[in-house]
Each structure stands twice: as C-alpha cells, then as structure tokens.
Amino acid sequence: xxxxxxxxxxxxxxxxxxxxxxxxxxxxxxxxxxxxxxxxxxxxxxxxxxxxxxxxxxxxxxxxxxxxxxxxxxxxxxxxxxxxxxxxxxxxxxxxxxxxxxxxxxxxxxxxxxxxxxxxxxxxxxxxxxxxxxxxxxxxxxxxxxxxxxxxxxxxxxxxxxxxxxxxxxxxxxxxxxxxxxxxxxxxxxxxxxxxxxxxxxxxxxxxxxxxxxxxxx
Length: 218
Known about the structure:
The strands form three sheets. The chain has a six-stranded mixed beta barrel with strand order 1-3-2-6-5-4. It has a four-stranded mixed sheet with strand order 10-7-9-12. It contains five helices and 13 strands. The termini are far apart. It is elongated. It is 27% helix and 36% strand. By secondary structure, the chain is of the alpha+beta class. A hairpin with a 2-residue loop joins strand 4 and strand 5 (67-78). The mean pLDDT is 86.
C-alpha cells in the first residue's frame, strides 16, 4: 500500500493546530539508517487508509518529497470524540533487519467444525492479533487459524497456530486464542445440585406448620 507525505518545516503545538485546520496531519518518520523526519500528510486519504486492516500490519511504500521509503505504521493518535487523526508515527525498515509487529488473525472453517455443526457451541475469539518477528520480506499481512477440527470443550492455544515459514510468534505459547462454550451447560449443571437443596428445605419449612397445628388442638 502507498502513502504520500511531505517534509514538515514548522514545528510546535501552534504549527500543528494550523496544520490540522488546513486538512493535514502532523507526523514523524523515524528508525532505520536515517534521521527522524517531521512529516505531514493529507488527512482524508490517510483517514480512509486507516480503516483498511492491511494498512496496520503491512509494509507501506511511502513517497516523501518524491523519495520512496518502506515504512511501518507504528502509532496513531485520534481526537477524543471526533473522527480526526491528530498525529501519526511511521518507522523506516531495512531489508536485512528483523521487525516486530502485530498481525491480525483470520479464523476460517468455524461454522463447519464439529463444535458448532454438531455441538451448537459458541466459539469465542479471545485474541484477534498476535505479535510476530521476521524479516520484512517474510511479513504476512495476516495469519490463518483453521478451526475445522474444533471440538467441544477444546481451546486453541498459540502453540496450535501454524506460523508461516521464518516467522516467529511472540508471547507465551500457552496463550489461549479460541475457546468453546455450550449455551445452557452451566444452568444444566446447577439443576441437579439445586434439587437436593430444595428437598432438604421442604421438611424444615413444614416443621413450623406442624407445630402450629399441635398448638391449635391443645
């Protein structure tokens, strides 16, 4: 994906406010072998790009003052209540340097799994993105999680996710990615326990009534 930027000369909070009023977004480009650069971007194209999933997890081709750089999106600051981008950070990348970034998970074959098709279970996606480390050329835009064999009472852990070649997942391998629950199972488990309790309570409730009848006969 492509993003167009220009070098920003004016700095400071006042200059940033004026920039935003003119439909621009202040930002910074850092990292790699170059010095940090203050940049500005047109707000509306950037706003629409930020709504695309791949923009957050893919290598972007940035054109800045006619020069091309490969970058990653690193941070976005939004207005407290308006749909307005206030500031944005990009990081330069080098082909021979590993990068660490969060990549979205795409779940497939959930509806055809035994857990859903036969057990009518509810599948919860506990994690929707994971952090990975790899060289830029090996970066996947997303990672697929195949749920076709998902069974009742089963959880999917990070160690169960098939990673692309030369891509290493960060975090604990035991982290839970997907859980399976059966609606109404908790209520059914409580019912047998509730019945003996009700039976035990019945004689206790009847005792005062029996005693009252004896008193009336006297």
